[in-house]
């Protein structure tokens, strides 16, 4: 997993799973602590995600909400959306709607 910081946005690339969760947790929480306002996680480069990774995002979302901020997922791939629905974490995570491609 590779994570690039672009202002208030974190761009995630690669497999987001139990192996990368510790690194991602550190980067996400450090970013939430250092950035004022809302944070966006661009997951358009995430090829696969598991429930452990999505639970990390759910906890980070709740922390952001407790601080009066938003953490939004942007660019969810079909694989990420599928796991969000299977885990029912779509109820907790804020997901930006993707534009329909004609």
UniProtKB/TrEMBL annotation:
<dbReference type="Pfam" id="PF13466">
    <property type="entry name" value="STAS_2"/>
</dbReference>
<dbReference type="InterPro" id="IPR058548">
    <property type="entry name" value="MlaB-like_STAS"/>
</dbReference>
<feature type="domain" description="STAS">
    <location>
        <begin position="10"/>
        <end position="102"/>
    </location>
</feature>
<dbReference type="InterPro" id="IPR052746">
    <property type="entry name" value="MlaB_ABC_Transporter"/>
</dbReference>
<protein>
    <submittedName>
        <fullName>Anti-anti-sigma factor</fullName>
    </submittedName>
</protein>
<dbReference type="InterPro" id="IPR036513">
    <property type="entry name" value="STAS_dom_sf"/>
</dbReference>
<dbReference type="InterPro" id="IPR002645">
    <property type="entry name" value="STAS_dom"/>
</dbReference>
């Amino acid at each position: 997993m590779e994570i690039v910081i672009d202002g208030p946005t974190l761009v995630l690339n690669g497999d987001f799973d139990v192996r990368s969760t510790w690194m991602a947790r550190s980067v996400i929480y450090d970013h939430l602590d250092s950035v004022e306002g809302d944070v966006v996680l661009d997951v358009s480069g995430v090829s696969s995600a598991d429930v452990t990774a999505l639970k990390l995002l759910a906890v980070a979302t709740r922390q952001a909400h407790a601080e009066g901020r938003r953490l939004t997922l942007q660019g969810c791939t079909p694989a990420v959306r599928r796991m969000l629905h299977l885990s029912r974490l779509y109820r907790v995570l804020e997901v930006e709607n993707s534009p329909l491609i004609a």
